[in-house]
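Reopening this ticket.

The earlier resolution said the output was attached, but the attachment link was broken on my side. Pasting everything inline this time so it's all in one place.
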Amino acid sequence: MADSPPVKRVLIVKLGALGDIVHAIPVAAALRRAFPAVRIDWLVSAKHREILDLVPVIDRRLVINDSTAAGGDVTSVGAAIRELRRSKYDVALDLQGLLKSAFFARSSGAARVVGFSSRYVRERLARPFYTEVHDPGGGGMYHPDETHVVWTNLGLLEPLGIRVTMPEFPIEPVESDAAREVTERTGGRYALLNPGAAWPTKRWPAARLATVAAALRARHALTSVVLWGPGEEALPRDVVAASAGAAMLSPRTSIADLVALSRGAALFVSGDTGPAHIAAAVGTPIVGIYGPTRPSRNGPWSPDDVTVSRDAICQCHHLRRCKLETMCLADIQTDEVLKAIERRLAGVPGV
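Inline output:
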């Protein structure tokens, strides 16, 4: 099969967001392992391109320009479609399940356009654009929140005859000034705390993270490095200010910096966010704090990682803003997270 692959050119369509792209990387890795000579292109939104630059199994990143980023191989929808058609793909895989992504996959002119079945796509209007579909449940009972999204994504390769037993996340090691600075300031022993999230429902209170930082210093001699992204520096500063010197603000970080920092960290404590999924992909020990999303679907990958969750009682699943006066995430107390940290650092798996 490797000598005479049934396909020569494959297009992956996964535009965003950051964590979703990380969860799709094993698809590219599995394609490369099954068909070493195949050409793999990936269509991505410009603001999420950076992580794919660190994935060597991808041959080309085709970038749709947006209002927050520039660069890449294409700069507009029209230019993207023209470039896709010139590439003459044999197969296009739509891992996004949106009308927009399905449109791009079909517009590529690929003979085979593979997507998810109607009951799994995020927008049902996407389904008519596919020539073949994969049903994650195989036609039986299927609960998308009980199957990790990594496995669901890999299922889209089954129409190509590819079955995966162990997902791979081939993300290249990188040199990082930010990581060197953190290593120098902490002596190389540090935990990463990530208080931010695009959804307010995924943000655990800053004061509780500050208490976690104090405990990590007292119990494990770990300095906590508090991460922040564009426009969210206030929340990390609150964590640092309340930590009694146990936490420091991270330098400004790129995605490459985040990869390097994660590889050097003893622990990563976070909600369901893109940075946490990057850390999980490179093997950083994780303690996840979950509310409106389920760890079984979106949680860290290693069976050794530990999550603290309120998904069983959450009434606002997959909503950016809570409908109630108090978010379910606020029900998670500091002691519960500290116990999870002790289990993770001791190597005791649990959820």
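Reporter confirms the inline version is readable. The two ends are 40 Å apart (CA to CA). The chain has a mean pLDDT of 90.
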